[in-house]
Specification:
With about 60 residues, this protein is an all-alpha fold. It has helices at about 10-20, 25-40, 45-55, 55-64. The protein has one domain (about 10-64).
Length: about 60
Amino acid sequence: MALAINLNEEQSRALAEVAVRLNVAQQDLAAAAVRDLLSRPSADFEVAASQVLAKNKELYRRLA
C-alpha cells in the first residue's frame, strides 16, 4: 500500500534529521513509525490490564 502524508516544514526537517542520524531513508523511517504505532496495544487495553492486575495482586501473590 502506498500512502502520501503532508508534513509541515518543522516536521519535515525533524524527519530528515532523524533519518540522517539513523542512516535510513525518510520513507523507511516514516513506515517504521507507522508500523510501530499500529503494533502497540491500545491505551484502553493498558488501563484495563493495569486495573485487573492491581485488583487481583493479592490473589496472584497467593497463587504464586
